[in-house]
Amino acid sequence: MFPMIRGALLGTIWMMIYCVCTSFQQETTFVYNGFDQGDHRIHLQGGAKIIPKKDVLQLTNATTTQIGRAFFEQPIEFKPSEPVSFSTHFVCALVSVSEVSSHGMAFFVSHSTDFEGAEPSRYFGLFNANGSASTRVLAVELDIAKAVDVLDINDNHVGIDVNSAVSVVAAPASYFSDKEGRMIDMKLVSGDPIQVWVDYEGTTLNVSIATLHNKKPSRPLLSSTSINLTEIVQGRRMFVGFSGSTGSGVVNQYVLGWSFSKLMASLQKIDISKLPKAPHPINKRNYTSLLSDVLLSLLALFVLGLLFGAYMYRRNLYAEVKEDWENAYGPLRYSYKSLYKATKGFSKDEFIGRGGFGEVYKGTLPRSTEMREVAVKKVAHDGEQGMKQFVAEIVCMRSLKHRSLVPLLGYCRRKHELLLVSEYMPNGSLDYHLFNDDGPTLPWGRRFAILKDIASALSYLHTEADQVVIHRDIKASNVLLDAEFNGRLGDFGMSRLYERGADPTTTAAVGTVGYMAPEVTTFGPSTGTDVYAFGVFLLEVTCGRRPVELRVPAEERFLIKWVCECWRGSSLLDAMDPRLKEFSSGEVERVLKIGLLCANLAPDARPSMEQVVQYLNGNLALPEFWPYSPGIGALTPTTLSPELLSLESQSLASSLSNTSMFITHTVLYGNGR
């Protein structure tokens, strides 16, 4: 029985020894990979706290002249047989909150936790101006302010303090890189985590620092061999922890991890991967700066959007249609951008008028030595069908050289538009001078000269050009006047070319009501249909009246028929423009008769344009014909529709809708004004 009792007693004694040893070991060797708010072994004083859910130990908050301390609650005790030594490794971060420079933090070893008389700012909450009044302290400071009264070397240094804020030894913050073999500077208040190692053995104290992912440097930053720790702590027990303070400026001092041991060999490693992140609060300035950055970014994006929109707008504004087959016409093609700028964006101020198929604008293009005035006509087209042939014919017409033709300079294609560029005629169209009641009357001499100009131009197109050109839209509005009031035939938008001897009649019938020959709807256009239109044009210029006018008495509505009636009444001159005061009666009669001859209902009875030129110049006598000759003054019977004549008044259209009249024109492709 006694052996059993003795065994139980021995077991109990060994268990008690084990528990004491374990408890003692826990109090002298510990490691924190972040801090648990429920761990009561960390004692907090002043402004120190453990931030909930972040596991970060914060020494001071955003308050000026504040002190915060955190230390291991149990003192570290040494047996009489043990040397007084320790080794610690901690990770901290100093995060600036204000522009005013503040103060750092310190790791301390002291014989007591009572720091009565300690002051904030440059004294780290451990000392005052007289040193340490009541508690003896060894501290390793991470200082970010230069205080002259405590002999700081700069505003970014590490120092060893003994019972005073005046460092025994100090050095600028840096670490030795084994890889590069040199010291590398560090900024303590960067907000990035900093590793600090403090090792004391014998009378030697070594301090090393490094960035978070570097290992412990092989060379310490600071080393002092004259520190007697037993004198400082006055015994074989000591408290260890951290202290920080603020001054007029504020910096947040964080401890992220901490490992401590009495012996360097038993120091446990901090697991860097488990450490919490230091909070980076946004102060008012940073918030303002962030808001400013956001606004500037939004402004930059807005400006970029505007620039991109402007780029896309300009790109679409000047977008053109260009196909491979147009390469041969490169020298004759104008860029849309150049025409847009020449016409000031096709502004209303540059608008000249509206002709067949489109609007006409005045433009100014640069030439080698001077500026050239041009007319730009915008012709709408809905598709590409026939466009290749149309452009080819337009380009071919540029080769036409005659003093009484408006020079065609080139073209441009864009989306649903074809733009024709021709020489600008400063005196506008003949149509304007004939029918503008506000302007001066164009005298007969000038009218007669213009008629001979246009006759000469048509003769050239029909007989002298490389290809036969049928204009198909001869009328007063398509005759332009240059600076000297010479007549120039223009608007080749409906013209067609064909080889001599070929059949042109497959071309569609187009033209302007009042000028179209009766056979054009059946057999298509020909040089004969141009002669017919020119005949109407002769009567129009001489009489100062349009081919069809609905607001006059019924017997005068159709110009051809009315002129013939005047001749039958032996008063041919009655048909002439009553505004003409000075004229040659012989020239007027000759022009009116040539006009009736050209407008003969029978195509074979019409003269050629070569003959017309000779008639007008008086070099060839007119053939014998009378107002009762076949085809003279005759019109094809056609039902007159209001739509065909584009009546201006619905009441007038209604009164004429059931009236059968004589008119040669059955297709209206476009009017001339």
Structure characterization notes:
- The strands form 7 sheets. Strands 1, 3, 4, 7, 14, 15, 16 and 18 form an 8-stranded antiparallel β-sheet that branches. Strands 2, 5, 6, 8, 9, 10, 11 and 17 form an 8-stranded antiparallel β-sheet that branches.
- Helix content is 26%, strand content 24%.
- It contains 14 helices and 29 strands.
- The chain has 2 domains: 26-270, Jelly Rolls, CATH 2.60.120.200; 425-673, Transferase(Phosphotransferase), domain 1 (Orthogonal Bundle).
- It is an alpha+beta fold and 673 residues long.
- Residues 17-26 and 637-673 have low confidence and may be disordered.
Topology:
Blueprint: H1 2-28, E1 29-33, E2 42-46, E3 49-51, E4 56-58, E5 67-72, E6 76-77, E7 86-96, E8 105-110, E9 137-143, E10 157-162, E11 167-172, E12 174-177, E13 182-185, E14 194-201, E15 204-211, E16 222-224, H2 229-233, E17 237-245, E18 251-261, H3 284-317, H4 336-342, E19 351-355, E20 358-366, E21 371-380, H5 387-397, E22 408-414, E23 417-423, H6 430-435, H7 444-464, E24 468-470, E25 479-481, E26 487-489, E27 496-498, H8 520-523, H9 527-543, H10 559-568, H11 585-598, H12 609-617, E28 637-639, H13 642-645, H14 650-656, E29 660-662
Antiparallel strand pairs: 1-18, 2-5, 3-4, 4-18, 5-17, 6-17, 7-14, 7-18, 8-9, 8-17, 9-10, 10-11, 12-13, 14-15, 15-16, 19-20, 20-21, 21-23, 22-23, 24-27, 25-26, 28-29
